[in-house]
Amino acid sequence: MKSFRIAIDGPSGAGKSTVAKAVAKKLGFIQVDTGAMYRSIGLYIYNNGVDPDDAAAVTARLPEINIDLGFTEDGQRIYLNGEDVSEKIRQNVISLYASKVSAIPEVRAFLLGLQRKVASEHNVVMDGRDIGTVILPDAELKIFQTASNKERAKRRYDELTAKGQKVSLEDIRAEMEQRDYNDSHRAEAPCVPADDAVVIDNSNITIEENVEIIALLYEMRK
Ligand code: DC
User: Fold this and answer.
1) Is the beta carbon of 76 within 6 A of some atom in ligand 1?
2) Ligand 1 centroid vs 98 CA: distance in angstroms?
3) Which atom in ligand 1 lies closest to the alpha carbon of residue 36?
4) Best substitution site from 32, 34, 41, 133 to test ligand 1's pocket, by max atoms within 8 Å of Cβ?
5) Cβ neighbours of residue 181 closer than 8 Å, sequence gap 6 or more
6) Which of 4, 10, 15, 205 is the most buried (most CB within 10 A)?
7) Are 155 and 13 in contact (CB under 8 A)?
8) 35 CB less than 6 Å from ligand 1?
9) Shortest-distance atom of ligand 1 to CA 38
């Protein structure tokens, strides 16, 4: 059976993972959060004291890294060299490391095979930055999901403070805008909508409405 692939791209804080998880649950697909893969590499680089701006040093460490995915009712689990790092990768410092390592072409090439393999084996809702443009350019449905900077910063702030992390809204917004700039202006696989993506701005709609729109698009295309 050929799999049905839904690609959801967009900047940080646009609710991609939340929506992807809910769409996957509704349709009986698996959710694949590719940001978690970059975060896991960022975590490994951070834990080993490697400079994330030193592309050669980061690339040299890739053969030491093994990433595995697990799929549950509540979404994806991710394993770094056998350890479940699904929570650790959400630390704020790892966001910056992930953004930096994700600009390195060798890191992107390292993850491409894994991403394409899971999409060929399952019906997937895969979220990231370049899923519709690079990873699955012939995905059956492509969404580019976004929201205003103010709304996205507030969501990230609420998410981190709910986990007990001490952060300021101003710092979160500044860091987020810097990461977005890096992610959308890098030479390799920048975060831009595919020509055939449906753009959803969810600043003023609920998660449920956002999920419903994607489910309807799926019904029309399946
Ligand atoms: O979605 P996220 O915040 O968990 O992603 C972490 C970083 O990884 C983010 O800075 C962008 C990068 N990323 C990427 O370059 N390509 C993807 N497909 C997914 C994430």
Assistant:
1) no
2) 7
3) 4
4) 34
5) none
6) 10
7) yes
8) yes
9) 8
**Residue with the nearest Cα to atom 4 of ligand 1?**
35
Taking the complete model, does pTM exceed 0.90, yes or no? yes
Q: How far is CA 156 from CA 11, 19, 131, 193, 195, in A?
A: 12, 15, 22, 22, 28
> What integer best gives the mean pLDDT of the chain?
95
Q: What average pLDDT does this structure show over 34-63?
A: 98
Please write the tens of the pLDDT for every residue from 83-96. Answer: 999 999 998 899 99
For Cα atoms 188, 85, 5, give the angle at the middle one, nearest 5 degrees.
50
Q: 160 falls in which pLDDT band (50, 70, 90)?
A: confident
What digits encode the pLDDT tens for the residues 107-140?
999 999 999 999 999 999 999 999 999 999 999 9
Q: Kindly state the tokens that stand for 60.
A: 């040299």
Helices and strands (H, E) in the chain, number of each type: 8, 8
The domain of 202 spans: 5-221
- CATH number for the domain spanning 49: value is 3.40.50.300
Which amino acid belongs to residue 218? Y
pLDDT at residue 148 in the model: 95
Strands 198-201 and 75-80, bridge-based pairing: unpaired
Residue 1: pLDDT over 80: no
Total tally of structural domains belonging to the chain: 1
Whether 79 shows a pLDDT value over 90: the answer reads yes
